[in-house]
Amino acid sequence: MLTEQHFLTPAEIDRLREAIQTAEQHTSGEIRVYFEKKCKEERTLERAMQVCCELQMQKTVLRNGVLLYIAY
Fold first, then answer.
1. E-state strands within 1-72
2. What confidence score (pLDDT) does residue 61 get?
3. pLDDT tens digits along 29-62
4. CA-CA distance, 3 to 53, in Å (whole number)?
5. How far apart are CA 2 and CA 7, in angstroms?
6. Cβ pair 35, 67 in contact under 8 A
7. C-alpha dihedral, 10 to 2 to 51 to 24, nearest 10°
8. SS3 18
9. What percentage of the chain has pLDDT greater than the value 70?
10. Structure pTM?
11. Is residue 66 within 8 Å of residue 31, measured between CB atoms?
């Protein structure tokens, strides 16, 4: 599995984390970002749903998790 370090600079990772933390303070939702090097175009939604299940996003307290799936 690839990590955000393959796609973003350390400064960008810090800014992204801060933005997520700020957003989560103003909502009950849980936000996660998932990076993947590639995904077949016709499978993007299917893969994002699979990742969502693997990360157990449906098990957030209010079941309102948000996954930002980025295949680059």
1. 31-36, 66-71
2. 81
3. 899 999 888 777 778 899 999 999 999 988 888 8
4. 18
5. 9
6. no
7. -10
8. helix
9. 92
10. 0.75
11. yes
